[in-house]
Amino acid sequence: xxxxxxxxxxxxxxxxxxxxxxxxxxxxxxxxxxxxxxxxxxxxxxxxxxxxxxxxxxxxxxxxxxxxxxxxxxxxxxxxxxxxxxxxxxxxxxxxxxxxxxxxxxxxxxxxxxxxxxxxxxxx
Length: 124
What we know:
The protein is mostly beta strands. Helices cover about 0% and strands about 60% of the residues. The strands form two sheets. Strands 2, 4, 5, 6, 9, 10 and 11 form a seven-stranded mixed β-sheet that branches. The chain has a four-stranded antiparallel β-sheet with strand order 1-3-8-7, with no helix packed on it. Strand 5 (about 45-50) and strand 6 (about 55-60) form a beta hairpin. It is elongated. The mean pLDDT is about 95.
């Protein structure tokens, strides 16, 4: 069974840093167009950062210069380095990706998956 599992969230003071990880598990061989999203209290889910298969990155204006997305293709893992955190960065962070792999019957598939989310709280 394919899963995207986030980790690395927690409570941090303003100005601090966190590194989120999103690891894909299961009988898979690649992630395509992975991205990080967040949903703050009373807000809609928004795209924070994304990275293409060639390594090109896109960031929301609110996080440019503070956040950095990267990927390790060998580990099928995507990271989000978050620096200079602000209280308004408080949210549940989700990763999303198109996952390619093989079913237990050996059939190739590509399907979009969401992780379960990890809470990031920025507060003094």
